[in-house]
Input
Amino acid sequence: MQDCSGIILAGGLGRRMGGVDKGLQMLHGRPMIEHVLDRLRPQVAEIVINANQNLDRYAALGHRVVSDAIGGFAGPLAGLHAGLQAVTSALAVTVPCDSPFLPPDLVERLHARLGSNDLAVAKTGAQAHPVFALVRQSVAGNLETFLASGGRKIDAWYAALKVVEVNFDDEADAFRNINTLEELGRA
Output
């Protein structure tokens, strides 16, 4: 989509994986983020990578890299905030660096349901996947205010917005993320 940017969230500490940078962990001979890029690239006009460590390695992938403006590894909302400051499109889709199987039609399906809402979020069964979302760039100010007030929980921020959940039950495995070395080995 020409009016949509992609934001890959790779700014975490990888605590459940022993403190390693998850996006750079090898899966089938390539860093996980390369698998994410392969899936996301055809769906968006540009990609921004949010990372707080290994910036040179992420930049070598050929996309703009932005770090959190809020210190202390404040979570995915801080990554979304940094990404929204960097994108040039009116819409941005967020995906995590540790979900290499994301749907090839993610943006299309989220966009089809966005309507007049502030964001559309993927859902399988009763489980929402808040880091897989299509977000209007216009919510950046609202997010900045939320973060400045100490807010960090995605659900709490979403509660103040117009949100639509989009069913992806037919692609439930696509949202599997890899959080541990054991999960990486199984993948």
About this structure: Residues 14-18 have pLDDT under 50 and may be disordered. The helical segments are 32-40, 55-59, 76-86, 106-114, 140-148, 154-158, 181-186.
